[in-house]
Amino acid sequence: MKIYVVGLGPGEDRQMTQRALDALEACDVITGYDVYVDLIKDRFQHKKLISTPMKKEAERCHIAVEEALKGQTVAMVCSGDPGVYGMAGLMYEVAQQYDPIEIEVVPGITAACSGAAILGAPLIHDFAVISLSDLLTPWERIEKRIECAAAADFVICLYNPSSKKRSDYLKRACELVLKHREAGTKCGFVKNIGREGEAGYVLTLEELRETQVDMFTTVFIGNSQTREIGGKLVTPRGYQIDQL
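Above: the chain sequence. Below: its structure as tokens.
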């Protein structure tokens, strides 16, 4: 009896790790959010596939554990990395309600890393990753985290920057950062990482403030040293220019 919590990475097969592919091949059952199961269903159609819609995360974990307790090997799939806004923590929490069962977390490429690679090298120095979704975290706490990261001059990577119900959240986040950064601070965002329609853009913080994005976008706000080099977003690691 075993559950793999598997990170699929950005969404295409070639950006999944070999360890993730091996885990999916080894399992009898694959479960997950329906969007993520759809990404792999053609390749793993010989497996039992169970999916649930958004906001059914706990139910999903219970299903995975109950399938495993039948003596099957189960994979719970997540986009990106299962330990970064993924299902790994919740799986451990739910599993403790049952008889002991083995859980193995299989890491994947999270959007911060895959998106940064498209833009250039914005995360070379210290950075903070913050989700703008207030579904599980009060907005007041998110605001404080943004302000603290901005004041400390971290590069900031924003997940879940906008949705139909949160259409102004990115603008509000940029306004908080503008208290501590110049309007010309270099930023970027990437849409549909690893999927059809993938595109990256470099712009200023002031321009980002007025930009509409969606939930399939990852946003990068540079620190005071981030610059644009050849159309790419680059944050120096700290080496002196005369040493290069």
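The chain has a mean pLDDT of 94.
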